Automatic annotation (TrEMBL), chains A, B:
The lineage of its organism: Bacteria, Bacillati, Bacillota, Bacilli, Bacillales. It comes from Listeria grandensis FSL F6-0971. Belongs to the flavin oxidoreductase frp family. Residues 8-164 form the Nitroreductase domain. It comes from the Bacteria. This is Nitroreductase.
């Protein structure tokens, strides 16, 4: 097994960082790594905002549910699905830009932004940094967009916090490969298939909380279904001319 | 610069592979690498189909616009945004599953699938394989879903072909970092900002085609706007109960 795969397989999310900021050259290398990712038909439909301003970070942290590691971290990045450059080009060339509001384009921009983000995450971990994705900014994308001056035909998707970790941890066990990987045809799963994994996750939480947290994976998923979040996302995207067609 | 970042920065898409199939243990390592990626609130909302059947590959290749490297490759993977496991759990527990049709859940599943895919891509390249994403399967997702038996609350997103490359190439120049990376606030771009990059891309194509292809990046984007594709994606997703709320 090579160094790259060893790094990939030892990933865990880090939620406590020192105050040390990333250097300019570290940030440049991370952004270059992000940009090297594949991009659908070469459209490069994403942007990255590096948030250095402490007040901005505090406001973003509040939106994300008071996650301190948005404020105290090496650098906080926001990944943006961004079709605004394409809109600008269409306008300048007098070409109809309606299609930028299609679901196809929203998915393309989301995939492009995510490919870039994961390149950055892997690069960061290979440099010894810890990382954590912050989906919590989607709790109020209108406010995030206002804070970061996001234009039409673009939307923030998630944050990525990267910094010097205060402590080490270990990978969290994933679903058994047989539950995720299918050969030639999709094989639907039933509750029985998740039993063993529920035990694994129950043990994992118990070991990390001294027995206080008793929850399997299916319990977590059930909880998520009972408390749906971010119900206004479709309307917000429509307000940015995204995903309506 | 470490080995992992060197690999990330030297990425290029490969479109010609030898006939040699990936071994079972190579595929296992790639899927494990994919699964190690971050996942939103631990929902693991994706599945991966490994397509080994030649007839299936031929049908997928035809849908993607007759891309031979879907058929002759080491392994062809299809990445699926997959909330069907969550639907199964909700059903079994008697919990309302309406929220799985929200735009939030569609984006979460798309992001999860893409994080996993990019882990696999980087792992594959570190092993010496070439890779190419195949967005072309979105030309007819209804047909792809039928071929691969994709259930409700799930949709194929893209393919990823991985194999032994027939030849080496070099990275394609990306947008200048200043056009993609913003500090604290998004800075909108105008056509003037793209001029230098248009020259770079024109030179890149000219050098690779003996002067036959004369096209800047903005010309490519303009062409894409003039010929919108996959207009039925929103309706297809709705037929799978995705992205409607």
């Amino acid at each position: 097994m090579n160094e790259t795969i060893e790094g990939i397989l030892s990933h865990y999310s880090v939620r406590e960082f020192t105050k040390e900021a990333l250097t300019k050259s570290e940030i440049e290398l991370l952004v270059k790594s992000a940009q090297a990712a594949s991009t659908s038909s070469f459209v490069q439909a994403y942007s990255i905002i590096g948030v250095t301003d402490t007040k901005l970070r505090q406001e973003l942290s509040a939106i994300a549910g008071n996650q301190d590691y948005v404020v105290q971290t090496g650098q906080f990045f926001v990944f943006v699905a961004d079709l605004s450059r394409h809109h600008e080009i269409g306008k300048a060339r007098g070409v109809e830009t309606n299609s930028l509001s299609s679901m196809e384009r929203l998915l393309v921009a989301t995939v492009d932004a995510t490919l870039a983000a994961q390149n950055m995450a892997i690069a960061a971990e290979s440099m010894g940094f810890g990382i954590c994705y912050i989906g919590g900014i989607r709790n109020d994308l209108a406010k995030v967009s206002e804070l970061l001056h996001i234009p039409d035909y673009a939307t923030p998707l998630f944050g990525l916090t990267i910094g010097h970790p205060k402590a080490n941890s270990e990978p969290k066990p994933r679903l058994a490969t047989a539950l995720v990987y299918h050969e030639n045809h999709f094989q639907s799963k039933t509750m029985d298939d998740f039993k063993m994994y529920d035990d694994t996750i129950r043990d994992y939480y118990a070991a990390r909380t001294g027995g206080k947290r008793v929850e399997g994976w299916t319990d977590q998923i059930e909880r998520g279904l009972k408390h749906p979040t971010r119900k206004d996302l479709k309307d917000f995207l429509a307000s940015k001319n995204l995903g309506t067609k």
